[in-house]
Amino acid sequence: MTDSSITNDAQEPVVSTIDTAKPLTLMWWRFKRHKLALWSLYFIGFLYFVAAFAEFLAPYDPFKHSKLHAYVPPQQVHLFHEGEFVGPFVYGLERTRDPETARLSFDEDKDKVFPIKFFHRGDTYRFWGLVESDLHFFGIEGGRRDRIYLLGTDSLGRDLLSRLIYGGRITLSVGLIGVFFSFVIGISLGSIAGLIGGRVDAAIQRLAEFVRSIPTIPLWLGLAAALPIHWDPVFVYLLITVILALIGWTNLARVVRGHFMTIRNQDFVLAAQLSGAKPRKVVTKHMLPSMTSYVIAAVTLAIPEMILGETSLSFLGLGLRPPVISWGVLLQDAQNLRSIALAPWLLAPGAAIVLTILAFNFLGDGMRDAADPYQK
Amino acid sequence: MLWFIVKRILWSIPTMVLISIATFIIIQLPPGDYVTAYIAELEETGESITAVEAAELRASFGLDRPMIVQYWDWISNIVFYGDFGLSLDWKLPVSDLLWDRIALTLMISTLSLVLTWIIAIPIGVYSATRQYSVFDYVFTVLGFLGRGIPDFLLALVLMWLGFAYFNFHVGGLFSPEMADAPLSMAKFWDLLAHLWVPVVVLATGGAAGLLRVMRANMLEELGKPYVETAYAQGMGEREVVWRYPVRVALNPFFSTVGWALPALISGDVITAVVLNLPTTGPLLLRALLNQDMYMAGGFILILSIFTIIGTLLSDILLTLTDPRIRHA
Amino acid sequence: MRNADNLLEIENLSVHFQMRDYKLHAVKGINLEIKPGEVVGVVGESGSGKSLTARAILNLMPRTAQTSGSVKFKSRDGVVSVLDHGRESKEMRNLRGGQIGMIFQEPMTALSPVHSIGQQVMKTLTLHTDLRKNALVDRATELMDLVQLPDPRGMLDKYPHQLSGGMRQRAMIAMALSCNPSLLLADEPTTALDVTTEAQILNLIRGLQEQFNMGVMFITHNFGVVAELADRVTVMNHGIVEEKGTIDEIFYAPKADYTQKLLKLIPRLPEYAMADSTDAVPAKPVDATKKPEAEEVLKVENLKMYFPTEKNWMGKVTQELKAVDDVSFTIRRGETFGLVGESGSGKSTVARAILRAYQPTGGSVKFKAPDGNFHELTELQGDRLRAMRAHMQMVFQDPYSSLNPRMTVEQLIVEPLVNQGETDTKLMREKAANLLLKVGLKTDMLSRYPHAFSGGQRQRIGIARALVTNPSFLVLDESVSALDVSIAAQTISLLKELQDTLKLTYLFITHDLSMISNFADHIGVMQKGKLVEAGDTVEFFANPREDYSRRLLNAVPIPDPRRARALRERRQRELQTA
Amino acid sequence: LEEAPMLAEQVAAGELPPVEERVPSNPRVIDVAESIGEYGGTWSRAFKGPSDRWGPTKLMEERVLRAVMDADQNISYVPGWVESYEANEDSTVFTFTLREGHKWSDGQPVTTRDVQFWYEDVFQNKELMPSTPALYTAAGEAMKLDFLDERTFTVTFAAPYPLFLTVLAKESTGKPGLDRPGFIEPFHYMKNFHPKYADEAALAAAVEANGGQKWTDLWGDKGQIHAWWFNPDMPVLTAWRVATPPPADTVVMERNPFYYAVDAEGNQLPYIDRVEHRLFQDNEALNLMVVQGEIDLQSRHLNANDFTLFKENEDAGDYDVVTWTKASTWTIYPNLNTPDDTLRGLFEDKRVREALNIAIDRETINELAFSGLGEPRQAGPVTGSPFFDAELEKAGTDWDPDLANALLDEAGLTERDSDGYRLRPDGKRLSLVIQTRHNPLLPVLELVQSDWAEIGVEALVRNLDRTLVTQNVETGEFEMVLDAFDRSSIITADPVRFLGRYGFAHNYFKWWSSGGNQGIEPAADHPIRSVWGAWESAQGASSLDEANGYAQDMVSLFKENLWTIGLIGETPAIYVKSDDLKNFPEGLIDDDALRGIGLAQAAQFYFDK
Ligand SMILES: Nc1ncnc2c1ncn2[C@@H]1O[C@H](COP(=O)(O)OP(=O)(O)OP(=O)(O)O)[C@@H](O)[C@H]1O
Ligand SMILES: Nc1ncnc2c1ncn2[C@@H]1O[C@H](COP(=O)(O)OP(=O)(O)OP(=O)(O)O)[C@@H](O)[C@H]1O
Ligand SMILES: [Mg+2]
Ligand SMILES: [Mg+2]
C-alpha cells in the first residue's frame, strides 16, 4: 500500500535534519541521568567481569584447604613497616590454639613482611576449563605456607575471597534463570487470564489455586530420589529452578490478571486492537508496559529470593551444596551461631548479596525512570 | 455478587477433589513411608528393628494397602465424619494437634502481617511521593537488607546480638521462668520482649516486598491526569494521594492478599523453626519430612481450602475496589 | 494588583519546558486580567498555551514545567500571588475547587476511574462547604440536574467508564461549579456537547455568573460560543497574546492578521439553515455538488448495543441500558456520513460496535472489503477480524486515553503500519513525519510522549495515526472538536483531499453542525439510542423532518455577537410572552 | 529413710503413704558419683519433637539389669528392677526375683502377675506381636516363662543363650509400643484395655474416644495408652513419670513417689523433683538456649563442632562443658551389595578398599573438621570396650597416597581419563557417590574428596534427607554412605554393625537374618559368612566367656577384611552441665549399648543451691 497523496507532495526531506530520537535512544538518555542507576550498571558489569575472570582474579584455588589456616580472620593490608614505606603488604600469620576452648587465633608476625605482588604466579588453574595457567591478579611472594587472606578463611582454611569470586559465577547465572522462567510463565498466564477473562480466567485461577496447594517438600523429596544421583548438582539445581518456576508463577499471574482486567477496556488498548495488533502484541507492547514499574519491582524482589533459594532446598539434597560454590552456599556456612560468634567474616557473602540486589534494584529504578514518559 | 460467590463455591468442589487426590499422591511420592522414617530415627538413636517387624508395622498402620484404598479411607473420614485421622508420629488426632497451636500461630502471623502492612504501605506511598529523597533511599536499603539476608540468618544474628551485647533473653515466646506463670502484666512484657525478634524478622522480609511494589505502582499512577483533578478540587496532598492513586496502586496487593490467609495459618516455617516458635508451620514441616501422611495431608487440605477462600476474597476485594473490574 | 477591580491578573507569565537540547517556550510572557462577573473568551491556535495559562492560575503545572511571571488572584481573604505558593500548599488548597473552579480540557481522563461520579462531586462539596450526608447527596443530585444529565440521582452512582464523553464533561462541569466559585476556568468545556445541551450549559454559566458575580475564563475554539457568552476576547497564538479586546472589537474590527484569518475560517451553517433566517424559502444549493451514487461500503442493520445496569443475585440482567437501539444506515464509497445528536445518545457506541470494539447485542454490520465481498463484522473473530480491521480505522473521541502514554508519537503513528507487516523503519518514519506536517504539527515532536502535548495536538496525532495506513473506511469521533478553526479547516481539507483521491469513506461523529454541513454527504441524527432521522445533508439542513433535528439546528451558536444577542433577546421575549 | 520435701505435704495430708511404705524393703542402693545430694530443683533440658522421647527415655529407663561403669571405665552389670537375676550352668534357664514391697508409680504392688500378663497376653498375643522377636528366641524357639511365686519367675530357652542378659540390658525395641522394654506390664492398669479382661463396651468407648478403630489402636504401635511418654496415667517403675505429656511445648516429668532406689544414706531417689523438656525445632535454637544458660544438663543434639562456642560462653551461661567419649566412629561404608556390578567387583577387592582407606589424610580431617578433638581411627570397638583391638583401631589409617596409588594400579585400575581420574574396567570414570544425612559432616567429605582426587578417584558428595538415605540403604541403592559406626562398646549387646546391617553389606545381612527370604545371598566363600558364623557360635555358646571369645573373632575378621573406611572416632560427647548440677560423672563412654546418659544414673543428680 502506498500513500501517494501524502508522500509525493513532500518536496524536501523533512526527517533527516530534525531531532527524532529513537525511543531506545531516548530511554538511554534518560537512564544516564540517573547517576546511581548508572553506577549500579557499572557495578553489575564489574560483578560479571569478575565472575568471568574468576580464575585469574581469585588469588587462590577456591577448593584448596589448608590445615593450618582454618578460621583466619581477614588480614589487614599495611603500607608502612616500622615507619618505612614498603607499599601494600601483609604480615605473616602466627597461629595458636587455646587448649581450653580449642579456639584458633592468629596474630601478625611482625618479622615477616609479604608485599602484595600483582600478576603473580600461584596456583595453577584451567581458565574456563580450557587454558592452563598460573597467573593471578595478585598474590604474595613467600613460602608455600604463607598466604594472603583479605576476607579471611573458612573452617577448612580456604580463602573466602577466592570462594566469593568463584561463587558469583553460579549465583549470577543459574540463579537468575529461575527468575526469568517464572516471570515468563506468570506474565503469560496472567495476561491470558486478564485479557480473555471468562472461562479461561476461571480455569487459570483454579489452576493457580491448585498449584499453590501442592505441597512442595514431598515433591522435592520424590524428585531427589528420582533424579539419577550422578547428575551434576548444578544441573539438578537448574532443573529445580525450572520446576520452581512452574509452581512459582501464581502471584505474578494474579497481579497481572488483576491489572489487565482494569485496563483491557481502555481506549488505548482498543486503539491498538483496532490498528490490527495481534493479541500478543497488544499485551507486550501496550498492556504490559503500563505495569513496567510493577514488573521491575517484582523482578528485583525475586532476585534475592532466588539467590537465597539456592540453598533452601539443600537439606533435601536438592539445592546447591558444597563442593559447588555459590553465594548462597557460602552464606549457608555462616548460618549458625558458631560462625556468627566466632567467625563473623563468614557473613561476607551476605554483604555481597545485599550489595548486588541493591545494585539490581537501583538499576531497575533507573530503567523504570527511563521508561517513564512523565520524566523529563 | 451472591451468585458469583455461589458459583465460585461450586467451582471449588472439583478443585478440592483434585487437590485432595494430588496432595495424597504427592505426599507419598518420596520413597519410603512413615515406617522408613521411623527406622531412620531408630538408627540415629542406635536402635534397630528387623525387616519382619517393619512389615508388621506397615500392616498395622495400613500402609501396605493400595493407595486408592488408603485415599478413600482418609477422605471419606474427613468428608463424612470431619475426622482427619491419627497422626502417625504423634499418635494423636490431627485436629487436636492443629487446634493446639493455631491460636498462637494466628496471633503471631496476624501481628506480623498487619505490622508489615502498616509499615510497608505508608512507606511505599511516601517513597513514591518523595522519590529519591533521603528517606526513600534509607527505606530501600533497609528493605533490601531485610530481603537479602535469609530470615533464618537474620533471626540468628539478631538473637546473637541481643544475647551477646544487650543481654536480652531471646528465643521462644517466653522466658523459661515465665512460660508457666499465670497471665500477668509481667508475663505480657516478657512476651513483648520476645516477640520483637520474630516480628522484626517476619516484617522486614515481607515489608520490603510490599514497600517496593507500592512504590512502583504509585509512581505509575502519580502522573495520571486524574491526580491533577483531585488537586484542582482543593484536596491536600495527603488526601489526594491516599484517596486516589493509592486505591488504584493497591490493585496488585488486593490481587494476592487473599493468599495471606493460608499463610496466616501455617505461619512462616523457617523463622518459626529458628526462633523456636510453637506455631503450626514446623509441625507441617516435620510431618512432611517424616512422611506422617495423615497429619501432612489433613493440614495441606485445610490450607488449600483457605487458599480457595483466599482467592475468592481477593476477587471480591478486587471487584469492590475497582469498578472497571466489577463491570467487565 | 494593578487594578483593584480585577479578580485575576496575569502578568508576564512565561512557561517553558527544558527539552534535551533546547527550551520549549510554551507561553511567552502573556498578560491577562479578568474582572468579577466578566467572561473572558480565550481563543487561539491549538497548542498556543491556553491550557497551560489556565493551569498556571491554579498553580498546577506539569512537574517538568518552569514558570515565571506572576498570577494574582483576589480571593475572599485578600490577594494571593499564586505562583509564590507551593503546589501543595495550604493557600492553594483553599483557592482550588472552592474559589476557583476548573473544567479540564479532557474530562475523560481527568476523572478518577475508581470513584463514582457522586463520590467525586461530593468530595469537592465536603471540602469547601458544610454540607454533609443527605444534604450533600441532594446538592450533588441538583448539580447533576443542572448540567442536564439524565437520571440525576442514578448518575451519582455511575463510574466514568460508563458515561459518554459529553456526560463526563458535564460531570466535570458540575464539579467545577459545585461550590459557586468566584472564578471559573473553563477549558473547552463544551466540545463534547451537542448544541442543545451546550446552549443550556452556557445558560447555566451565564446564570451563575450573574448571580454570584463570577469571573470566567472561557477557552474555546467555537466562535459561536464566544459570540454567545464572552464579554471580552483574548486571542493567543504561539504562546503570546495576539490581540485583546471587547467582543465587538474582535469580531468587527480585528486588528491582528491572525484574528482576521481565524474569523475568515469560521465554519458557518448554510444560510438556508439558519433558524433566524428571514427568508421563508431558503435558496437550495446547486445540485451539482451532489456526487453520483456509489457502491455501498457499510451496511448497518438493526444494530443494538445494550449495557446491563442491574443484575439479580443469580447474575441475570434485570435492567439494561439501550445505548444503541435498532439503528440502521448505509454508507457508500467515498462518502461522508455525519452522525450528530444528543450527547449520550449512543453515537460513540455505534462507532465502537461497528468496529467491534464492543460485541453488539444484536443486528448486523456488513462491510465491503477491498476484495469486493461483504463481510459480516459482528461474526468475525481472531485473524479474520484483524484482516478486516486493516481496512478500517478510528479516531477516538478522547485522544488522550486512546494514545498509549508510553509510546512516542512516532511509535504511535507507525504502529498500524508495523501491524501490517511493514519493516522499513526509514520509510515509516518519513510517512509519520509527513503526516504530522499535514495535520499542522512539527516533525520534531516525533520523539515526544503524548502527555507533553496540548489537547488539540493530541487529537491531531490520533488523526495522523488513523490515516497512516490509508484505510478505506474511517470513523472520526469528534475529531476536530479541540482544534482551532484554522487547523480544523486544514484538517478537514486534508480529509476531503484524501477522500477525493483515494475514495475514502468516513463516518464522522460531531456536534459541530456548521462544520458537518460543509463536509458530509449524508447526515444521521441520534437521540436516546435511536437514529431518528437520516438523509441527504442538504435535505436535512434545509428541511429537518424531526422535531429534535429542528431544535438542534435552532440551537447552533452563531459566530456573530450582534446576531446572537438579537436572537437571545428575541428568545427571552418569546419566553416572557409565553 | 528420708522423705523428699515435695512429697512431705501429701504424706501429711494422708494422700500418700509415708516413704517407708513406698520403698521396697530391699531397695536398690545407687552409689552417688560425688556426694550425697539435696532434694529439689527442676532439671531443664530440650527435646526436638514427639520422636525425641529417646532423650527422656534414656535418662531414666529401667531394665532388669543395667550396665554401670566405674572411674577406670570398667563396665559391670547390676540388677535393675529385680532384686536378683541368675543363670544356670549352660545358660538355658534364667531366674529372676522381684523386690519385696516394690510398687508401681500409682502405689500398686509389682508382682509376677505383671510379668505373666506381659508374657501371656502381650508377648503371645498374635494381634500385638505377629512374630517373635529374635532376641527372645534360641535355636529358633521362643523362650518360655514359668511363675514360681509372687516374686519369682524363670525364663527357659531351648538352647544355651549366654548373651541373653547382655542383650536385655541394651535392647529396648521390642513390640508392642516399640520403644518399651518388655517383660513387665502394669496388669492392673493395662487390663482395662485388653479384650481378654476389659468390658467390651467400655473398651469400645475408650477406643472410639482415642480416635481409633480397633483395640490395638489404643495399645499397639498406633496407641498412646501404652506409651509412658504420652500417657500420664500409665503406671511406671522409673524415677520420674510424665506429668505434662506432648504435644505440650514443655513436657514435664515429676518424681515417682514409689521409686525403688535410695542413696547410701537411705534417701529415696531421685533428688531432683522435676525434669522439664522444652521443645525446639532447630539445633541453633538449642545452642542459643545453651549459651543463655537455660539448659541444666544435656548432650543430645549438641554437636562437637560447637565445642568452642560452648566453651567460650561457659561464664555467660553459668555452665560447664563436660565431655564423655563417643563410642562411634564416623565411617564411609562402601556398599558390597551395590547394584553396579563393576563397582561391586572393585569393592570386593581388598586392595581397593585399603587404597581408599590409606589415601585419606585423617589428621587433617581431625584438625579441620573436629578442631583436633577426635582421633583418627578405623571403625571398631572403642577404647575402654572389652572388645577393644588396638590393631583394628589403626588399621588402614596411615596416610600413604603413594602406596594407595600403587595398590590401585595393582588392582588393574591403571587407565586414566583426561581429568586424571582412573577408569573402571568397563571404561567409565571411577567415581563414587557418597550419600550422607549428616549435614555438619560435609566438610569432612570435601576433604575426603580432595584426598581421593589425588589417587584418581572421584568422590561425589550428596547430602540427602534422612529418610531418603535410609530408604536407599534399605533397598541397597547406594555406592557409599557416610554414617556413624556405633554400638561399639559392648558389641555383643547389638553387633549388627559388624554383621553388615545398615552399612557395607545390608542386603547380605538381610539375607542372613531373614533366613534366606530376603536380600542377596553372598558367594559361598564370601568372608562375611565367617563373621556370621562367629556370631552364630557366640549366640549358641554355652558360656559368656566363650561367647565373648567368638565376638572377639568377629573383630579380628573385621580387621582382616577392612570392609569399612573409618575416619575419626572417639570424639567428645559434649555435655553441657549447669554449675549447680552435681554428681554428674566425667569421662564415661557414650554409647547406646550402655544406654547413653543412663550410664550416669540420673536419679542421683542433684542441684546444689
Ligand atoms: N508536559 C509538557 N511537556 C512539554 N511540552 C508541553 C507539555 N505540556 C504542554 N506542552 C506544550 O506546550 C504548548 C502549549 O500547550 P497548551 O496545552 O497550553 O495548548 P493549548 O493552547 O491548550 O492547545 P489546545 O487548544 O490544543 O488545547 C504546546 O505546544 C504543547 O506541546
Ligand atoms: N461501558 C458502558 N457501560 C455502561 N453504559 C455505557 C457504557 N458505555 C456507554 N454507556 C452509556 O451508553 C450511552 C451512550 O453512550 P455513547 O458514548 O455512545 O454516547 P455519545 O452519543 O457518544 O455521547 P457523547 O456525544 O456525549 O460522546 C450513555 O448513556 C452511556 O452512559
Ligand atoms: Mg488545551
Ligand atoms: Mg461519544
Automatic annotation (TrEMBL), chain A:
<comment type="similarity">
    <text>Belongs to the binding-protein-dependent transport system permease family.</text>
</comment>
<keyword id="KW-0813">Transport</keyword>
<dbReference type="Pfam" id="PF12911">
    <property type="entry name" value="OppC_N"/>
</dbReference>
<dbReference type="Pfam" id="PF00528">
    <property type="entry name" value="BPD_transp_1"/>
</dbReference>
<feature type="transmembrane region" description="Helical">
    <location>
        <begin position="36"/>
        <end position="58"/>
    </location>
</feature>
<protein>
    <submittedName>
        <fullName>Oligopeptide transport system permease protein OppC</fullName>
    </submittedName>
</protein>
<keyword id="KW-1133">Transmembrane helix</keyword>
<keyword id="KW-0812">Transmembrane</keyword>
<dbReference type="InterPro" id="IPR035906">
    <property type="entry name" value="MetI-like_sf"/>
</dbReference>
<dbReference type="InterPro" id="IPR025966">
    <property type="entry name" value="OppC_N"/>
</dbReference>
<feature type="transmembrane region" description="Helical">
    <location>
        <begin position="170"/>
        <end position="198"/>
    </location>
</feature>
<keyword id="KW-0472">Membrane</keyword>
<dbReference type="GO" id="GO:0005886">
    <property type="term" value="C:plasma membrane"/>
</dbReference>
<dbReference type="InterPro" id="IPR000515">
    <property type="entry name" value="MetI-like"/>
</dbReference>
<feature type="transmembrane region" description="Helical">
    <location>
        <begin position="340"/>
        <end position="363"/>
    </location>
</feature>
From TrEMBL, chain B:
<dbReference type="InterPro" id="IPR035906">
    <property type="entry name" value="MetI-like_sf"/>
</dbReference>
<dbReference type="GO" id="GO:0005886">
    <property type="term" value="C:plasma membrane"/>
</dbReference>
<dbReference type="Pfam" id="PF00528">
    <property type="entry name" value="BPD_transp_1"/>
</dbReference>
<dbReference type="InterPro" id="IPR045621">
    <property type="entry name" value="BPD_transp_1_N"/>
</dbReference>
<keyword id="KW-0813">Transport</keyword>
<feature type="transmembrane region" description="Helical">
    <location>
        <begin position="188"/>
        <end position="211"/>
    </location>
</feature>
<dbReference type="InterPro" id="IPR000515">
    <property type="entry name" value="MetI-like"/>
</dbReference>
<keyword id="KW-1133">Transmembrane helix</keyword>
<keyword id="KW-0472">Membrane</keyword>
<protein>
    <submittedName>
        <fullName>Dipeptide transport system permease protein DppB</fullName>
    </submittedName>
</protein>
<feature type="transmembrane region" description="Helical">
    <location>
        <begin position="102"/>
        <end position="125"/>
    </location>
</feature>
<dbReference type="Pfam" id="PF19300">
    <property type="entry name" value="BPD_transp_1_N"/>
</dbReference>
<feature type="domain" description="ABC transmembrane type-1">
    <location>
        <begin position="102"/>
        <end position="318"/>
    </location>
</feature>
<keyword id="KW-0812">Transmembrane</keyword>
<feature type="transmembrane region" description="Helical">
    <location>
        <begin position="253"/>
        <end position="275"/>
    </location>
</feature>
From TrEMBL, chain C:
<dbReference type="InterPro" id="IPR027417">
    <property type="entry name" value="P-loop_NTPase"/>
</dbReference>
<feature type="domain" description="ABC transporter">
    <location>
        <begin position="8"/>
        <end position="263"/>
    </location>
</feature>
<dbReference type="Pfam" id="PF00005">
    <property type="entry name" value="ABC_tran"/>
</dbReference>
<feature type="domain" description="ABC transporter">
    <location>
        <begin position="298"/>
        <end position="553"/>
    </location>
</feature>
<dbReference type="InterPro" id="IPR013563">
    <property type="entry name" value="Oligopep_ABC_C"/>
</dbReference>
<protein>
    <submittedName>
        <fullName>Glutathione import ATP-binding protein GsiA</fullName>
        <ecNumber>3.6.3.-</ecNumber>
    </submittedName>
</protein>
<dbReference type="GO" id="GO:0005524">
    <property type="term" value="F:ATP binding"/>
</dbReference>
<dbReference type="GO" id="GO:0055085">
    <property type="term" value="P:transmembrane transport"/>
</dbReference>
<dbReference type="Pfam" id="PF08352">
    <property type="entry name" value="oligo_HPY"/>
</dbReference>
<keyword id="KW-0813">Transport</keyword>
<dbReference type="GO" id="GO:0016887">
    <property type="term" value="F:ATP hydrolysis activity"/>
</dbReference>
<dbReference type="InterPro" id="IPR003593">
    <property type="entry name" value="AAA+_ATPase"/>
</dbReference>
<keyword id="KW-0547">Nucleotide-binding</keyword>
<dbReference type="InterPro" id="IPR050319">
    <property type="entry name" value="ABC_transp_ATP-bind"/>
</dbReference>
<keyword id="KW-0378">Hydrolase</keyword>
